[in-house]
Amino acid sequence: LVRFAAASPVGLLACAQPEVAPRTPLSSPCEPHRLGKVDIRGAEDADVRHALAPLAVLDGTLDNPLRAERVARLSTEALRTIGYPRAQIVLDRGAGCGVELRARVTLGPKFRIAKIQFVTDDKFPAKRRLALIEDALGTVNTVGGVYVADRLDAALAELQKRYRDAGWARAEIATFEADYDDTRGEVSLTIPIKSGQKFKIGRIRAINARGVAGELFDALGIEEGQPYDKASLTAGLSRARRRIDHHIRMRAVISDET
Q1: Burial grade of 245 (CB within 10 A; 0-12, 13-18, 19 or more)
Q2: Which contiguous run of DSSP H or E holds residue 52?
Q3: At what angle do helices 230-243 and 213-220 cross, to 10 degrees?
Q4: Nearest 5°: phi and psi at 46?
Q5: Phi, psi (degrees; rounded to nearest 5) at 164
Q6: Minimal CA–CA distance to 216: which of 243, 234, 253?
Q7: Strand pairing category for 177-181 and 186-194
Q8: Is the pTM of this model over 0.90?
Q9: Is the confidence at residue 3, as pLDDT, over 50?
Q10: DSSP label at 36?
Q11: pLDDT tens readout for residues 224-256
């Protein structure tokens, strides 16, 4: 408390207060460089809205056209994984409270896989083929599930590798065909496989294995003439490394000689 004396009989009282810094004005809710609204049209079902959630959360963020296009591509892929292989999302912008982002969604028909046919007469286990191409816990690229082309491409590359590891050393999986039935909402897949000849183990040679060749062959557990199987060879090689105190490497060479 500060007391001031004056010549007149009237006294003055004043209270000392800390100096208050000037307040920064709040930014306007309608900033020209922000997305004031994200308007999504064409998404009615819950599963579709869930696939488009990454677009919805752009509301209120800084406007970044490249990011918006990237999120739209991801959302399109999400729609395709729930059965809309022809889904498309078109973005445009308009003026409003800030920038208004408009997303127009065209789903197209919804499809389920009716049939998967492997065109081959080899002895690779049929159930194993199907198991190797299915994805997402049996909901993608399986009969009754959703067809997703890029995931099937990756799965078929792995299936070709498994063929070669199982003895079909020159196996090739050709381009598959997807036949759509728009009326029934079904797609049938035809996958040609050129498996070729299945190879056997012809000759086994141990190089720089003086004194341990017999023990090495016994540990490997393989014999000339038996079908080639990479998994069995890998297991035998691991067993041999545990038993024999040597650095062991193995190389398989394909030969058409019988």
Answers
A1: exposed
A2: none
A3: 130
A4: -65, -40
A5: -65, -35
A6: 243
A7: antiparallel
A8: no
A9: no
A10: E
A11: 889 999 998 889 888 888 888 777 887 878 777
Cα–Cα dist 193/119, whole Å: 6
Q: How far apart are CA 131 and CA 238, in angstroms?
A: 27
Tell me: the pLDDT tens digits for 163-218?
999 999 999 999 999 999 999 999 999 999 999 999 998 888 888 877 887 888 88
E strand segments, the chain: 2-4, 12-14, 35-41, 88-96, 98-106, 112-119, 172-173, 177-181, 186-194
Distance, in Å, from the CA atom of 236 to the CA atom of 14, rounded to the nearest integer, reads 96
Q: Give the tokens for residue 254.
A: 């394909």
Give the total residue count for the chain: 258
Residue 94 has which token pair? 């308009």
Structure tokens at 152: 């099937």
CA dist 103 → 38, 45, 87 (Å): 7, 16, 13
Look-up of token digits 């019988």: 258
- Contact call for residues 176 and 191 (beta carbons, < 8 A): yes
pLDDT at residue 12, as a whole number: 40
Secondary structure (3-state) at 178? strand
Identify whether the C-beta of residue 95 lies closer than 8 Å to the C-beta of residue 138.
no
Closest CA to 81 of 139, 158, 159: 139
pLDDT of residue 22: 52
